[in-house]
Amino acid sequence: MSSGARRSPDRGSAAYDHWVISAAASEATSGEPAVAGVTTRPASPPDTDPTETDPTGRSRSGGAAETGGAAGHSAGEGVLPAVLRRRLAPLDSWLEPWSWLATVVVVVIAGVLRLLNLSHPPGLIFDEVYYANEGNELLAYGFEWDETNNTPAYVVHPPLGKWLIALGIRVFQFNEFGWRIASAVAGILMVLIITRTARRLFRSTALGCAAGLLLALDGFHLVLSRTALLDIFLAFFVLAGFAALVVDRDWTRRRWLRAIDNGLDPSQPGRAGRPPLAVPWWRLLAAVLLGCGLAVKWSALWFIPVFGLLVLFWEVGARRSAGVRRPWRDTVVDEAGWFVLCAGLILGTYIASWSGWLGTDGGYLRHYRADNGMSEPPFLGALQNLWHYHTQAYGFHSTLETEHRYQSWPWQWLLLGRPVAFHWTDQAACGAPSCAEEVLLLGTPLLWWSFLPALAALLWLGVARRDWRAGAILAGAGAGLLPWFYYAADDRTMFSFYTAPALPFLVLAVTYVLGAIVTPYGQPAVSDPAGSDRRMVGAVIVGAYLLLVAICFAYFYPIFVGEALPYEDWSSRMWLGGRWI
Question: What does pTM read for this prediction?
Fold first, then answer.
């Protein structure tokens, strides 16, 4: 045993009592009930037991199945309390082949929907007129260029999203498929990520696939995945960052569990009571991804402190579960340096996205200081000019009050109060005297009108169960939606596609509730007639809901992809009348 590890506290000792009591107290505030005596596998809401004990009695997440309130010996290094093992055990069955087969099926569905006839409608639609052209200009100059006036272009969004569009143009030329393919790939990857993340959160392949399928069959997400706008990239990086942090949470708990198995006494002060030092690579990756999100649109900024707080609470929870005497103090001491490094990675990633502007001389305000008689040192001067550019862009965003036909307010978004028409024409051929062809940024109504009830249920269940998953999902949804209510007070011009980064969390909220319907909180995962009937009824309800969402999606599909319809058929899909026209 290494010099930094110590034998776990002996039964009957004060340290052992503190260890078990701390773990039980942590469990009582985490949504997973503590147990005493001989236990069955508890149902970890909204699905199955986190340790996923298989029929042989062996826990898939490490250690023996729990009996008698303890988990047995670990390499002769003392007894690990069952309550502690269950609290720290991560999901280790991520390579399970059937779960990946189911995931592939969901992703293929998403891919077909997003890639099929991607070049339609022809030409630039809605804001593609800006972002597709700017992506092409980045390829030519390294910065945005105003072709009309032959001068550097003043743009108010960072360049990374446009660089991704430019990548598609570079590979497939400047055409509809070329400028839309990057969005389609981002949308498909989002379905993959949410499927695997939901499976990790809920410990259920079925619920993971349900989350992926709901996102794949959402019209709002489909339209953004088939259009060269920035918001799909913002949503992708935010979701990917969150997914990396969820993996980091599991990695942290696995690290503590292994250290205790090897004889660590977490009640000891200082390094003696902590696992060996290790680099939190998943957390660092999340920082880079959030920096990328910020480099697409500034609205990613709200997710950074929210996700930082989640990591802080998760780290404290892991230490409390392990039996650390002062979890808050130790978390601050242990993690402060990593938080500072993550902040540096976010900032560095953001600045790196401006490399085309920084590495050339022709960008807008690139030499603002020199042009206005001020000193401009080689490196610092460029950053000062970039800062001035940002103050100009912020001034634009904070004073944007120009009225627009499709503008809407945050309280309308989840109700689909004012969707945005990306494309519309009555000159399409459909075999009828009068035809209409439209691409409408509209969420699948049955799914979107489930969001508010799901959020209310999630809040109730999260408080009642003290479930960290509910808190994480609510935090992500809040970071994506609540800041816009503040800007609404200033009458800022806003659009429904600003909800894009919140969408995955809204889908996860619905999935959480679906899981709660199938598996009641605290129900033992044993075979009994009452539990079997309850699960069967819940499964029927969830299956019926997913089927209805799929039918609703199919009905609206023509106005998601610009399929020509007889005017009467198009009009029949305008359920809210003038609000959708």
Answer: 0.86
